[in-house]
Design brief:
Rossmann fold; alpha/beta; about 250 residues; 6 strands; six-stranded mixed β-sheet
Length: about 250
């Protein structure tokens, strides 16, 4: 039996448009981002996929993308599960800063390390910083010690994987077709795990907004095939645009 999983990065957000580090800041989609979500849903529909369950983060840009997709597919009735473990990587003290301006101030090499290295996190928020997630009501039932003040991709993977094993993998193993709508780095973490990508190679992977990535898995959830749906050249161009975001101008 082939088990099908779609990973979908949310559509363009307001801070994607403004080229700012977003992380756990709860910004919404732009009109272009909403259009990307609908176009992604049409690509899914053209593939003939019929989802049984969906998973998303606690951030509105991912949730809104999921709503738009399920509405377009006439599947708003399927179970939806939200978890902070699927949130974007926490960018620490960089959150809210302009990426190109930060590159001018600190150098493109340093910003590239903060953005794309596997195990080097950006500068952390102080525990008493009002931007720290422990002050956000959506996380009030969590032990503050599990909430990040900054994260590398390695740390992001470490908090995504328990949710994979506890929630997403069991849904796939039970025969359900699964949609995960999340963020560039939480999805990069899952991509790394599923495809066994090395720590070095994952630094060069960029996941575009709004383009569904279909995985076909065997009964042991080993990857048999994976590909972006829709126009392959559009996906490549969108990934290149993500890679160029933090270049000084």
């Amino acid at each position: 039996m082939t088990r099908k999983l779609v990973l979908l990065r949310h559509g363009q957000s307001a801070w994607n448009l403004e080229n700012r580090f977003t992380g756990w800041v709860d910004v919404d989609l732009t009109e272009a981002g909403r259009e990307e979500a609908v176009r992604g849903a049409r690509d899914i529909n053209n593939e003939g996929l019929d989802f049984d369950v969906a998973f998303t983060s606690t951030l509105k840009r991912a949730i809104s993308t999921l709503w738009l997709v399920l509405d377009e597919l006439d599947r708003m009735w399927i179970p939806v599960h939200r978890s902070w473990r699927l949130n974007e990587r926490h960018y620490g003290a960089l959150q809210g800063l302009d990426k190109a301006q930060t590159a001018r101030e600190h150098g493109e090499e340093q910003v590239h390390i903060w953005r794309r290295s596997y195990d080097v996190p950006p500068p952390a928020l102080a525990l008493d910083d009002e931007r720290h997630p422990r002050f956000d009501p959506r996380y009030r039932d969590l032990d503050a010690r599990v909430l990040p003040a900054t994260e590398s991709l390695k740390l992001t993977l470490e908090r995504v994987l328990p949710y994979w094993f506890d929630a997403i993998a069991p849904a796939l193993l039970s025969g359900r077709t699964v949609l995960v709508t999340a963020h560039g780095n939480s999805l990069r973490a899952l991509y790394k795990f599923l495809n066994g990508v090395s720590d070095d190679d994952i630094t060069r992977l960029n996941i575009p907004t709004g383009i569904p990535l279909l995985f076909e898995l065997d009964d042991a959830l080993r990857v048999q095939d994976y590909r972006y749906l829709g126009d392959a050249e559009r996906a490549k161009a969108a990934a290149r645009a993500v890679a160029n975001q933090a270049k000084a101008r």
